[in-house]
Write a structure and sequence with these properties.
2-enoyl-CoA Hydratase, Chain A, domain 1; globular; 53% helix; 6-stranded mixed beta sheet; 4-stranded mixed beta sheet; alpha/beta
Length: 254
Amino acid sequence: MKDPLLVEVHGAVAVVTLNRPEARNALSVELVHAFSATLRELDTDPAVRAIVLTGSDPAFCAGLDLKALAADGQAYLDVFRDHDCIRLVGTLATPVIGAVNGAAFTGGLEIALGCDFLIAGERAVFADTHARVGVLPGGGLTARLPDRVGTAWARRMSFTGEVIDAVLAQRIGLVTEVVAHEQLLDHAMGLAARIADADGATLQAVKDMYVRGWTATTGRAMDTERQLAAGATPDWASLESNRREVMARNRAQL
C-alpha cells in the first residue's frame, strides 16, 4: 500500500505532497491522520523554516473523501475532531506556501486558503462545492475566502460552485502568481528557500503578528462557522448521488 503523504526535506524547506492521485488527493482517514501528524511534527522542528504544500498530479486536493462520507456519514466527519488537518494548516507557526498544481475544490480549497500565500500552476483550478454536496464549510472558508478575494467573489464561488481557473484566480487575488506547470514546484521551493534564509525567531514573530492581527478581526467569523457547521445534519442518503453529479460536472470543466 502506497503512502498517502510524501515528505521531503531540502535544507530548511519541507515539501509535503498529498499522494492519492487516483482519488484526486481526497482526504481519506489514513491521509487525514498522516497529514495532521506530519504538519505538527514539522511545525515543531526548528530545522524546518518553511513548508511547501502540494499534491500529486493531476490535483491539489479534492477535499473530503465523499465516498467515505457517503458510506460512513458522521463517523467519517468525527475523524476531523481530533485530526483537523484542514484547519491546522492555517494555525502553523511555520510559513506555508501552497503550490497548487491542479484542482483545489471545497475542503481542498480550504486547505489552500490556510497557506500563507498560493502559487498556481497553469493547470490549477479552484471551486467551492460545499452547497452542491450538502456539507457546510467548517475549515474557515467563509472567513478566509472573502479575506483573499473580497465578499462578492467569495459568495459567488460558494453559491454557484463555479470553477475558477488560474488566470482568474490571480486577477481576483486568490493566488499571487501563475507559473508553468512544470516550473511550479521549483519556483515554490525557491521562494521557500528565500523565506527560510531569514532569521528563524524573527520570521516566526512576523508571522505571529500577521496571524494575531488577522485573528483579531476574523476570529469571531471562524468561531461562528465552526458552530454552525457542527450543528448541521446532512442527509447522508443523498450524498452519493450528489457526489456523482458534482464530480461529473467538475470533470467536464477540467
